[in-house]
Amino acid sequence: MFAETTGEFFRHVRACRTLIFQVFPKENHALELVHGKDSDEVSFGALKVPVSTLFHKFDTACVNAIGRFLSSSAMHSICPKSTAFARVEKPSLRLILVMFAWLLSGGPAIAGDSTEHEPEAESPWRLGVALGYGQRTNPLKFSDNITVVVDLDIAWFGERFFFDNGDVGYTLSENELFTFNLVGRINSDRVFFSKTNTQFISLDNSVGQPVVLQAEIPDRDYAIEAGVELLADGAWGYLQAGAFQDVSRTHKGRELFAEYSYLFRNQRWFYEPSAGVSWKSQKLNNYYWGVTADESSLVFPVYEAGSGMNYFTRFKMSYQLTRKWSSLFVVEYERLNHEAAQSPLVDEKSVYGAFAGLKYNY
User: Does residue 30 carry a pLDDT above 50?
Assistant: First the structure.
């Protein structure tokens, strides 16, 4: 009986909802009941309409629709006439608002089930793994491209402290407009130097005899950097900016970066283009891309790099297969700054990357 009564109730109130979207065709958003200081309002997205104005526009159609339900036989079957609720000939303003809020917040989860369930607490962990195949080109001479078959997404967010895929941070300030963090991270330039090979090159000397030289890219160390990070997002997109200083005394330099991205959604499809810039100081650039006198040879002469600006862009596309599974496709491009590109260690001025696979979110 309750399920049938609930169904009849929704049929009456959906008629009111249809009238709402006829009055406000451009504000086809979920409605929200707002209790103001002086009077109640109903919110249509960004548009807030006083209840008095709303019911004036609806005329008496909305009131009569719910009124017919309250006086229907189905309602009387569960609410005898002796009760105050059943004696209401025309529903009060407060009652109508409660009914609208109930309908537009989703109604009962299952018809006939009146049990309320507590929402699950949001986990501080974000765990995911992507399985597929991808490559990132290596701009260094005598080096191999970087192959990717597994891409892990591991993050934990506490009240203030967080860990996000290798970055460790502390949130200093957070509000609706932006988040300001202290962050520690590992510099990413070192990753190219782990895929180099030793080459033997034959050259003719001054008397025309061949001389075999061993050519090997100088090794570089990882650097631990600390700095500040600003995050901001809204309907306009997502912005991330940061400033970092080497605290491990590896390259003793600094880096400034900014990246903008925007997420588009079309049903189960998600598209996210992004673009950014990264300024690297002279000390940072020279440590990774310069050649010292001790490292120099006929193949790699002495070179001192200055500061420079990298440019990068990325496009990520995914399709939500199930709640946990999604397909993933990523392409990216980075243009090395002029000082790094002119290094004798560098063979390519640009870095390309792509990955395609399946991702599972725990």
Answer: no
